[in-house]
């Protein structure tokens, strides 16, 4: 079974890496919609359209299972995709929210994400449904995705912006922080430093890769570990920093191919 993964850009590579590490025996195909990033500032209708086009591209490339590595797309398009396409659809929101709800010592949770993800209230609703005792504080961070896409990973300006975004959550004395965007783990060292070492920082990439492993195990789809799957990487536009950050995430050179969706 070939696993298809899409994101608005390079952030989903953190999910792809986690899945490859967890299920190395499977073929994986990744599509980063770099020509149309960021998704967080787009309308709900536009994001749904992009999600459908990305899914169709991956299916044409042979994907038999889809992972929406984009929180923005997952927050508005999950049910649309599940109704439209007859194949398993996974997203990054539910696994992370469920993981946080399972922590008995968690009481004050902060969420940072794109404006679209935060406005959807999807994380807040899922956590509150499982754990109504948890107080949830959500903050949109619209500048972080463009900063990551531009390669401004360790710039003073980026550290200052992260500090400003996290200030309201620090004041609330949160004990757990969800990175509700797959671009954000690339900034995790800065985020952890600015929010404080005592705050548990949750990376949705690890949560969704574990959920995928359980799905494969429950459905008797686990392959022999001595097999090694192939990895293909497509983007809608090769940007200056994509190759560099992809190489830093996978610790090897990543060959990229350009692929176009219907309207990109």
Task: Please write out the topology.
Elements: E1 3-7, H1 13-22, E2 28-32, H2 44-60, E3 65-68, H3 71-84, E4 89-91, H4 93-102, E5 108-113, H5 115-120, H6 122-130, E6 135-140, H7 144-149, H8 156-171, E7 176-180, H9 188-195, E8 200-203, H10 204-218, E9 231-235, H11 242-250, E10 256-258
Number of helices: 11
DSSP, total strands:
10
Cross-sheet strand order for the largest sheet: 4-3-1-2-9-10
Q: SS-based structural class?
A: alpha/beta
Here the CATH topology of the largest domain equals Rossmann fold
Order of helices and strands: EHEHEHEHEHHEHHEHEHEHE
CATH class of the largest domain: Alpha Beta
Major sheet description: 6 strands, parallel
Task: Report what the structure shows.
By secondary structure, this protein is of the alpha/beta class. It has two domains: 142 residues, Rossmann fold (3-Layer(aba) Sandwich); 111 residues, 3-Layer(aba) Sandwich (Rossmann fold), CATH 3.40.50. The chain has a six-stranded parallel β-sheet with strand order 4-3-1-2-9-10, sandwiched between helices. The protein is globular. The two termini are 27 Å apart.
Summarize this structure as a short list of keywords or feature phrases.
alpha/beta; 11 helices; 264 residues; single chain; 4-stranded parallel sheet; 6-stranded parallel sheet; 17% strand; Rossmann fold
What's this model, at a glance?
The chain is an alpha/beta fold. Helices cover 45% and strands 17% of the residues.
């Amino acid at each position: 079974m070939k696993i298809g993964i899409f994101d608005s850009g390079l952030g989903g590579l953190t999910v792809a890496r986690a899945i490859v590490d967890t299920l190395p025996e499977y073929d994986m195909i990744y599509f980063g919609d770099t020509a149309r990033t960021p998704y967080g500032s787009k309308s709900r209708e536009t994001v749904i359209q992009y999600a459908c086009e990305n899914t169709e591209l991956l299916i044409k490339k042979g994907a038999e299972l889809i992972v929406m590595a984009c929180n923005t797309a997952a927050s508005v398009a999950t049910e649309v995709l599940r109704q439209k396409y007859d194949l398993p659809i996974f997203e990054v929101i539910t696994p992370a929210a469920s993981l946080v709800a399972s922590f008995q010592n968690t009481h004050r949770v902060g969420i940072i994400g794109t404006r679209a993800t935060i406005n959807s209230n999807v994380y807040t609703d899922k956590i509150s449904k499982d754990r109504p005792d948890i107080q949830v504080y959500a903050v949109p961070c619209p500048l972080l995705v463009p900063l990551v896409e531009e390669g401004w990973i360790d710039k003073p300006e980026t550290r200052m912006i992260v500090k400003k975004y996290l200030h309201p959550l620090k004041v609330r004395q949160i004990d757990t922080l969800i990175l509700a965007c797959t671009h954000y783990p690339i900034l995790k060292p800065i985020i952890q430093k600015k929010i404080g070492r005592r705050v548990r920082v949750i990376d949705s990439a690890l949560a969704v890769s574990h959920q995928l492993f359980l799905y494969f195990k429950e459905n008797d789809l686990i392959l022999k570990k001595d097999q090694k799957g192939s990895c293909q990487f497509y983007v809608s536009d090769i940007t200056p920093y994509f190759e560099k950050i992809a190489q830093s995430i996978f610790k090897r050179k990543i060959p990229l191919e350009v692929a176009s969706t219907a309207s990109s």
